[in-house]
Amino acid sequence: MKEYIEERAVEIANYIIRNNATVRQTARQFGISKSTVHKDVAERLLYINPNLAAEARKVLDVNKSERHIRGGLATREKYLHMEQH
Length: 85
Fold this sequence. Notes:
Distance between the termini: 53 Å
Strand content: under 5%
Low-confidence stretches: none
Number of strands: 0
Structural class: mainly alpha
Helix content: over 70%
Mean pLDDT: 90
Radius of gyration: 15 Å
């Protein structure tokens, strides 16, 4: 694996952990696709730093389990905002 990919995978994991970030937020921050974020954290990082991979995975799993709530809140906000105009 190329060194810059390894460094990116570690940076991504640290960003996710530090900011409690979602995959979308992380992808936007690093200018990469959501698929690349997943691949870096779920596959590449396991070989580089398994402990860091596990920590990042925990954050992503929590975010995934809560995403339906965030989606519902966003939809609610959208319609509340539309009623005011």
